[in-house]
Fold each of these.
Amino acid sequence: MFRNRGEGHLAVSRQFRTDLDYVELGPNPELIAPGLGAGLDSFAKPNDEKQPPRSVARRLVREATPGAPRARGFNAVLTAYEATLESTPAPAADALDVAPLPLDRLPGRSWLDLAIIEGVYRHGVYWHAERALEAVRSALICGPVTLRDLELAFADREQAQRAIRRLVAAAAERPGQFDAWLKGVREHSFLALLAGTGLRATQRAEAAEQARRLYCALLWKAYLGMARCYGALMFLAYIDLCLHSERAPDEGERWLFRQRHFPQVCLGLPLAFFPRAQLRWIIRLLTRRWREWDAEPASHDRVTDMLGLFGQLVRARRDADRRAKPAGPSAAPAEVIESVAAADVSQAALADDEEDGLLITSRFCPRCHAPLELSGGDVGRAGEALRFNAYCDGCIVERTYRLRPADFGSTTEPA
């Protein structure tokens, strides 16, 4: 499961590079980035309908991030979030009261966790472990990952154990085909985990919701299990570094090694477990603390808060994408067509095979039904077919697509 963590719709890979990623367009455009723009009376302007979508999005982001007037998209929003988090004072700490978090008392843990997890020794301030881990989960898994969801996932212990046995059996019986088997399970709403593929109507929907909740809970356990294994491996490397190096590392070098390679309390996982989409939101906060030799764990909790904001942003973006599904053929991708018309296009004939682009009839990927995001690059046209590059959030890949405007909207949109 850990090997497949980046597959499917539950994975979070959107980079949020441009201003458009933070705005929900429509009759009344609004910013979807949580915590930004709350003081503005109205986002809508009388001439917004006449302006290109990128101009509207740029105005909204600029108004909501006055502290970064020249920044755009990701840099503007990240700068605003960092300023908000850094302006919040860290909890007061008593220098005489330092003790480790009692992680070794948790089920399945031991004294080893106190050695391989960085940041367990904290001053006498309260640490909300459940809220911190929920923030990390929300940044990595776009699914039901709240504490309440985890409780519901294992409410029926027999059901959960049967699902786990199915996963173990699939991995043992066909180890070389497990990824393909899991892909099929994922594409059918994880119903196979609960033997619910034959259910209908309401029962099927309820079973799919529970199966998705259970899969997310098991995936998070896979994250934690692999983090513990990785931490033990890095602990051995750390011992070798300290005892067998030609030059013994000083205290600062040892601390930086632990920061970069050990599981972190503020992250719940090692830094290496975070893909680019998540890492780019927290690396500036981390490097700033590394440069300042800030070893106070309470100040590192702002990194956890940043992951929580990113998790909220991911869900807000996906909700906005669902609401933006076109109602019919009239919702043609005007931005794509305008880009093609303005480009120096090629007149070479396009074949019907996928080598020249995957044929689409709507703004959704024909393979996974996730909304497509125009990513630029070469744009061409041959006859009535338009050829463009787009990013699919469901397939987690950028590929070339083909579109015939006459056929657009001829198929039923995914539910």
Amino acid sequence: MNKMSFPKISIVLSKNTIIASMLIIQVIVIVAKLLNAWYTQSMEGVNVGLWAVADPPWQANGTLYKTKPLWGVHYFGDLQDLLTSAAWANPWGVSPTQHLPVGINLVSLFGVFGQSWTAPLFIAISLFSSIFLVHCWTAGETFATRVLYWVTLVPLNMTALLVLDRGNLLLIAIPLMGIAMFHLTKKFEASPLTLILIATAISLKTFLALPLIVTFVIGSNRLSTIFKLFLTTLLLNLFVMFSYSGSTIGNFSTFIKTTLNFASQEPAENALRTGSSFYRLVLEFIVNKSFADVFLSSLSVISFFIWMSLVSIVLVMRAIPVWIKLVVSFSSVQMAITGSPYILIWSIIAVLAIPREIHVEGKETGKSLRGRYAEVIMAIVISFATLVGNLPISNRLLLSATLWTVVVLSTIVLYFTNPLNNKGKAALLPQIKI
């Protein structure tokens, strides 16, 4: 019996082609929205949740910092939440915050020159961080190509604009983590600067520790590496916490309790409205919503462990390319926990992680060729998952969660029978020097 043969073709999928296609699609969508607004005399389809007239902070005013609009009538609410926390002598006392001290101190710098400078400084640092992220991952490209990448992934990316619009720190934290992961996965080294970048990113957004845990512990079996990374983060934050009033251990304990309470009290209806996670998909397919409310905590925990189990399977399959493992690992920041719609901004790292070129050669063996086809499929789906940020919020959240589920499940299915999976333990980051 003749073995199944694939067509003798050669395909080269370039990341530049993917970016150019994304740019064209985004421009077409923006033009279509503007034309629709012109004909309907309504901006509802254009802003897609942007430029809210009132976006006040969630917390009450601190004793020293009084919230007020920073640009016209716009508050940049999330940013002033942190500035409010920074105004307390003890942010984990009267009104406990779930933010780490290093993050609070860094954000307080936005208010050094007064509130009139807060928004410009925040926007400038956010954009500069994203520019440096693109610069790292596009080494070897021309200046014009790098600009094309950045314009596509940030200014024309509706999710990035939402992050800026709300005053969220994700457009600073995600680039910091992305730059650090570039050095870890491309250069296989963790310099002191890399450790500081990771510690800073986690201090700004604690949940960014999740992909690091699964990457190092499961993907590379390097417990010493993850220990050093988190020891740096812990010591840095404890050192800064000494400068606050009250017991340092007590403050740290309150921070942990506040973080856990914040994560466990997300109501089911809010998860369906603003979340874009595997948990949301689970809730979406439960017809009886009262059942979801009763077993909310259990469903959240079960969804978390199911997703992390799928990520773990991908990380231990040796045949799967490193870049796909990195993307799947990072998907946990969106898919494993129920977060705000702004978390979709992490996908810019997924696009940047796509190889510069993916070659599909007809002369390869069947299973090797299938693996190359899998890379092409993953690259295309990842680009679409990033583009959904330009859809209306009610559509983008469910579709984004669905697409990332397709990415992970397709990866497992396409690579499951590859013989490389049986040739030893996977090593996502094989020779990192610290």
Amino acid sequence: MNEPEHTSQPMFPDDKQTGEMHGYMCKVDFECELGFAEGGNTVYPSVENLKERRKCTPQCGIVKVAVRCLEVVQAEKYTDE
């Protein structure tokens, strides 16, 4: 598989070799909804942040995930031109 030509790296990646950022998700969202939820799924920056915002974690569980940019599909535009 060829790597995409244009990639973007996060400012502070958790894994310097892959550029991956790590985060946390509700385990049920990860297993059942990731890729299918029309409004998207949230990745939280810490276990504590996830537990504060999602009261389902005692029943659903928590997973640690890795996110990596593969390609910039649309670049940012900061001007009003």
Amino acid sequence: MEFAVYMGAKAVLGLYASRRQAEAMEAAADFAAVQAQLSLEQAQFVAKLQLKAGREEAIRRRQDSARAVGAAVVGVAGSGTEVSGSPLAVIADAIHRDESDAAAVITNAKLRAFSEEARGRARALGFTAQAEQLREGADITRTVGLLDAIATGAAAAGGYYKLTGGASPALPTGTGYGDYGAGGMEG
């Protein structure tokens, strides 16, 4: 009889342990899902900061260019030279070069922002896959725990049957549920 009790306790404890393990896996999956969301939000935030910094740098460069061009025009005009021909071509080239530089700054900021968002999405996908894997593992752990408990219970019943020579356990009588022992169903 101690063998059957031992096996029954083992089955119950195994089932309990598998359920606790599955709960821990579910909690880890929830954490991974939160990490996925945070990774995406962080990447989007950093991308916005990079775009803003790029735009501010382009504005600063354009302002510097405007000041330099203004000083050049004033310098040329102050010298009594007519603002046309070569001096005008030099000023126009400077304006074009400075505007191209400002546009390149914005383009580079957009590339950095896009790259950051792509990395954030990749991290988020990794965490999402991890969460799904953990949830699937939790389901498997629950199923395996249940099957182990059933197998252990069957082994306990088989062991009891072998130890008793095949006799059915007598259930208590007078409980209102009848006697389901060897004598049949009375009650």
